[in-house]
Amino acid sequence: MPVIDAHQHFWDRRNTQFDYTWQDAEPLAPICRNFMPPDLQPHLVHAGVDYTVFVQTQHNLAENRWILGLADNYPFIVGVVGWVDLASPAVADQLAEFKDHDKFVGIRHIVQDEPNDDFIIRPDILRGLKVLQKQGIPYDLLFYVKHLRHAATVARHVPDLPLVIDHLSKPRIKDHAIDDWLPYLKTAAECDNVYCKLSGMITEADWRKWTADDLKPYVHAALDAFGPERCMYGSDWPVCELAGTYQQVYEAINTALGPISDRERAMIFGETAVNFYNLTLPE
Question: What span, in angstroms and rounded, lies between the C-alpha atoms of 61 and 230?
Answer without folding.
Answer: 29
